[in-house]
Amino acid sequence: MSEKRHPPPSLAGKLLFAARHFEEIISCAGMSIIIVVVTLNVLLRYFLSKSIPWAEEVAVIGFSCVIFIGSAAVYKRHMHVGIDFLVGLAPRPVQAVINYLTGVFLLVFNGYITYLAWIYSVESWDKPTSILFIPYFFVNIPICIGFASMSVYALLDLVRRHRHWYSARVTQRAERRDA
Asked: Which pairs count as long-range contacts for 119-128, CB under 8 Å and 24+ apart, including other chains?
């Protein structure tokens, strides 16, 4: 039996994959950095009674990436915790309206937080960290990236809901007309 081999992905395929999954890639990189730096620091403290002075700053940057950009990855897959018990009790048309209004609210909210996070990040450019002397911008910019990404996904979800609603309306009208 011969196995069918797939050709290796092209550069364009790899770039497309990275673009589609950039939130997951950055979050995993941040988590990996946290694990390596903190573990190394703990081992050095335990065995050599010395620590890495910059470990906390690097871990904080990684943590910021994991939390905010990871939130966008979860948002993209609709995996955030939600309590839709009361919405589920409503009739279907009311559910559709509530879901649409929720989408509008999330788009506006995420967009506004993106704006605030950008201002916060830019204003922190002149404030250096205490050990590495890198601008706090790099600690704060994952907030902006995460909420900007969530804004894009909220917009895409809103467009998808609108298309679904519109196609359902067109189908209902056609069925009434044909009946």
From this structure: 120/144
Contact between 109 and 147 under an 8 Å Cβ cutoff? The reply is no
Q: Residue 22 has which token pair?
A: 């950039």
Residue type, 10: S
77 is written with which tokens?
């897959």
Q: What is the DSSP letter of 136?
A: T
> Within 13 Å and on the Cβ side, how many CA atoms surround 126?
2
HEC sequence for 49-102: CCCCCCHHHHHHHHHHHHHHHHHHHHHHCCCCCCCCHHHHHCCHHHHHHHHHHH
- Dist. CA 142–CA 66, nearest whole Å: 9
pLDDT tens readout for residues 14-41? 899 889 999 999 999 999 999 999 999 9
Which one, of 15, 14, 61, 27, lies nearest residue 146 by Cα?
A: 27
CB 143 within 8 A of CB 64: yes
Provide the phi-psi class of 49: left if phi over 0, else alpha when psi is between -120 and 50, else beta: left
**Is 119 in contact with 79 (CB distance < 8 Å)?**
no
The mean pLDDT of 156-169, rounded to a whole number, is 83
SS3 129: coil
- Give yes or no for a contact between 34 and 66, defined as CB atoms under 8 angstroms apart: yes
